[in-house]
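Per your request, structure below.
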């Protein structure tokens, strides 16, 4: 059975996704996407995010004195991946652990689907800039081009289109935070933060990639029992 999924944390990067599912993902299609009426938060004492419906997170904002968010702020940027199989989903469940539940949500693509780029020396050399064709919404990058990684995890965050101009929604599975709201900060873990502070860890010659690979393997060995909150994702 084929599955679609929406990722919003470290799994946004193809290298980490490949490591989790254990294969090159040659059958997968991927593109940037956005989830509406949800918010992505920093988890206290952790550096990976949590996503929850705005109907739940508004309690955090009220307690912090922030008040209601604008519709634009009630969005989560991430990646849409199509073509996952049953085993891929089982391994993703293990990686996400019991802090999260896998739910079906409606997400809006922010560009055309592209073939997941093959693993290559791109992860060990200086990353190339995305081609001009992938910097414009609606342009199709070359199939199998190694710059697909730059397409879905760009070096700078492109501006989100007006919500009324988004592409039609498609259904996908995503991982919603299931632990207590007391473990979350009212501070949003934004897409801009991801691009600026984290994306560099997974592209180019950074040795940090090995640390995330080790974390992927450790989580698989834990068989999904991750509620201790001591991991890095």
């Amino acid at each position: 059975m084929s599955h679609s999924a929406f990722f919003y944390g470290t799994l946004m990067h193809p290298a980490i996704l490949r490591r989790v599912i254990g294969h090159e993902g040659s059958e997968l299609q991927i593109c940037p996407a956005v989830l509406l009426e949800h918010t992505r938060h920093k988890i206290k004492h952790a550096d990976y995010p949590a996503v929850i419906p705005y109907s739940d997170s508004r309690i955090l904002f009220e307690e912090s004195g922030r008040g209601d968010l604008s519709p634009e702020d009630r969005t989560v940027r991430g990646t849409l991946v199509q073509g996952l199989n049953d085993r891929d989903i089982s391994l993703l469940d293990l990686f996400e652990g019991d802090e999260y539940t896998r739910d079906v949500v409606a997400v809006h693509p922010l560009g055309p689907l592209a073939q997941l780029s093959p693993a290559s020396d791109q992860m060990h050399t200086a990353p190339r800039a995305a081609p001009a064709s992938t910097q414009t919404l609606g342009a199709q990058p070359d199939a199998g081009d190694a710059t697909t990684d730059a397409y879905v995890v760009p070096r700078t965050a492109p501006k989100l289109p007006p919500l009324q101009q988004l592409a039609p929604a498609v259904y996908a599975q995503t991982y919603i935070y299931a632990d207590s709201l007391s473990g979350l900060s009212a501070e949003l873990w934004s897409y801009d933060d991801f691009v600026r502070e984290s994306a560099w860890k997974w592209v180019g010659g950074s040795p940090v990639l090995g640390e995330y690979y080790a974390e992927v393997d450790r989580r698989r060995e834990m068989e999904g029992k991750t509620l201790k909150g001591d991991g890095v994702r």
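The helical segments are 14-21, 54-63, 86-96, 148-152, 191-198, 208-221.

Regards,
D.
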